Amino acid sequence: MTEALRNPIGRKVRRLVVNVALSALLVTSIIAIVSMYNIREKNKEILITQMEASLYNTIKDKARFADSELGKYLEYANMFADYVSVLYRNPSKFVPNEVLPH
């Protein structure tokens, strides 16, 4: 009879160990899945922030370049305007030159 009592106790212990192991595995899996989801969301926010910073820097660099190019055009236009204003103020100083065709 002691043999009959030992078998059910052994089964109960095995069942208890398996249940504890499965419960621990289930809890660990749930924690891992939640952590991966949180990491993914945080990484998404970080990547968006980095992309925005990169785009801002690119736009700033292109704006500086455009400003310098437009500054050159402004300088050329001012030089041309100065030259034309001198022509209009003193037309007698500038004698037209005849240009011969080729």
Describe this structure in words.
By secondary structure, the chain is mainly alpha-helical. The protein has one domain. Helix content is 86%, strand content 0%. The longest helix is centred in the middle third of the chain and has 88 residues. The protein is rod-shaped and about 125 Å long. The mean pLDDT is 89.
Which SSEs are present, and which pair or pack?
Layout: H1 2-89
Descriptive tags:
mainly alpha; 102 residues
Task: Kindly summarize this structure in a few lines.
By secondary structure, the protein is mostly helical. The protein has 1 helix and no strands.
Provide mean pLDDT, rounded: 89
- H/E topology pattern: H
**Roughly how many Å is the radius of gyration?**
42 Å
Note the main sheet: none
Provide the domain count.
Answer: 1
Termini, distance in Å?
129 Å
Report the portion of residues in β strands. Answer: under 5%
Structural class: mainly alpha
Low-confidence stretches: none
Helix content: over 70%
Number of helices: 1
**What global shape is seen?**
rod-shaped
Q: How many beta-strand segments?
A: 0
